[in-house]
Write a structure and sequence with these properties.
Elements lengths: L2 H14 L1 H37 L5 E4 L9 H4 L25 H10 L3 E16 L2 E10 L1 H8 L5 E4 L3 H4 L3 E5 H7 L6 E5 L5 E10 L4 H4 L2 E5 H8 L8 E6 L5 H12 L2 E4 H4 L1 H39 L1 H9 L4 H35 L20 H27 L3 H7 L1
Helix pairs in contact: 1-2, 1-14, 2-12, 2-14, 2-15, 12-15, 13-16, 14-15
Length: 419
């Protein structure tokens, strides 16, 4: 049978009961819109939280940890070579925190095709002098350009300029909480005492706010050269190298490789943030489950409406079959009706979902825990819209399949005789 004719008949049946058609389409529209909106919002939130972790945690961190020596002197002595030696409370080895041959390590990393970039860092504990009180804190010596490129450091500098660390000698950026405890403003000079008792004066050029009070109350940032000067160390003194990889999933294997290759300790991001990764996965599963449930509910609505339409259109079906339309033709007509409802409702749902997402994205979201976020996060991933329209068509096709098969089996003789 001519497919154009079947389309025209399907269109006539749809328009004849346009209120029912509209109700079915609205059901699909609501399901698709909620699916798109929820996925955009939930994945946007996950992306935001993941970004906060990724901006603070390197994919692979190279460092030296002070720990007890594996081989104790008593085990090296010939006198006790054949004895069992039990040592309690062994002391840490007289090892240095710095990474040996840091220049060679960074040169090797720059040639590794798996590495997107790396940022050297120096971390040291100090005391900030506030009158007669000493406030415990940490100074992180950083390469501002690399930290900003790889870990979005400038996004968390809420006052001042991150570039001033490089341009202004003997400068420091204080955590927002630490600045409050010291009662200092931009331009003020703070006094710092190292673990060795040396004192230095540093100019405050900005405030840093990560959103985690435990960090903002103790952390501060200075340039690598300033931190090396404070510690009295040479220009090649580095305690950490934070590596950013092109593929995050290979971080555990790369960390083990680097630990053996460079003779350092290495920690991968999956190990450092295992609990957070689990929470992110659970949130994604929940959001997809709710969205799919909405689409299935909409599909059952279409199924019920098409069933009712078939009972009401028994006369029309009988006339179609009596005039030469086969059961297959009738089945196609009702499938076209079902898919047409899904297509119209799905496209309208995508538009509504996009508008709802846009609306949520404009709602102010101001919190001290997330200083860089001004509105609710939304992820406008085209994949959500593709999944939405495909699921709409598949759901409505399956919802219309059984009623269409029932319509194709209608015996016109019985219907006409009954009339």
């Amino acid at each position: 049978m001519n497919f154009t004719l079947l389309l025209n008949i399907a269109k006539a049946l749809l328009l004849a009961r346009w209120r029912q058609t509209l109700v079915a389409a609205i059901g699909v529209t609501f399901g698709i819109a909620m699916f798109v909106t929820m996925q955009s919002f939930m994945t946007g939130l996950n992306k935001l939280l993941d970004g906060l972790i990724l901006n603070r945690t390197p994919d692979v961190r190279l460092y030296h940890e002070i720990k007890p020596r594996n081989r104790q002197p008593v085990n090296e002595s010939p006198l006790y070579k054949n004895n069992y030696n039990f040592i309690s409370s062994p002391k840490s080895a007289n090892a240095r925190l710095e990474i040996y041959n840091s220049g060679s390590v960074m040169q090797s990393l720059s040639k590794d095709e798996r590495v997107r970039g790396f940022a050297p860092r120096i971390s040291t504990q100090v005391f900030f002098n506030n009158g007669n009180n000493d406030i415990n804190g940490v100074i992180n010596g950083i390469d501002v350009q690399k930290e900003s490129l790889l870990y979005s450091f400038t996004d968390y500098v809420v006052n001042g300029k991150a570039s001033d660390l490089k341009n202004v000698s003997n400068s420091i950026i204080l955590g927002k909480g630490l600045a409050g405890r010291l009662q200092v403003n931009i331009g003020d000079v703070v006094s710092v005492t190292t673990a060795k008792g040396d004192q230095y004066s540093l100019k405050t050029v900005g405030f840093f706010q990560s959103g985690i009070n435990e960090i903002d109350n103790v952390q501060s940032y200075a340039s690598l050269s300033t931190t090396q000067k404070i510690l009295g160390r040479p220009g090649n003194y580095i305690t950490d190298i934070n590596v950013k990889l092109k593929d995050l999933t290979i971080a555990p294997a790369v960390a083990k490789e680097y630990a053996q290759l460079y003779g350092t300790d290495a920690e991968d991001i999956q190990t450092a943030n295992a609990q957070f990764e689990t929470g992110s996965r659970v949130r994604s599963i929940i959001s997809y489950s709710v969205g799919i449930t909405l689409l299935i509910v909409a599909g059952f609505g279409i199924y019920n409406i098409l069933n009712m339409m078939i009972y009401e259109k028994m006369d029309s079906i009988a006339i179609l079959k009596a005039t030469g339309f086969s059961g297959s033709d009738v089945k196609k007509i009702f499938l076209v009706i079902s898919v047409g409802i899904g297509l119209f409702g799905g496209l309208l749902g995508l538009l509504l979902g996009y508008l709802l997402s846009k609306g949520i994205n404009q709602i102010p979201f101001n919190t001290s825990a997330l200083p860089t976020v001004k509105t609710y996060p939304i992820n406008y991933n085209p994949l959500f819209y593709v999944i939405g329209i495909l699921f709409s068509l598949i759901t409505t096709y399956l919802a219309g399949l059984f009623p269409a098969r029932k319509a194709s089996k209608v015996d016109p003789v019985i219907i006409i005789r009954g009339k």
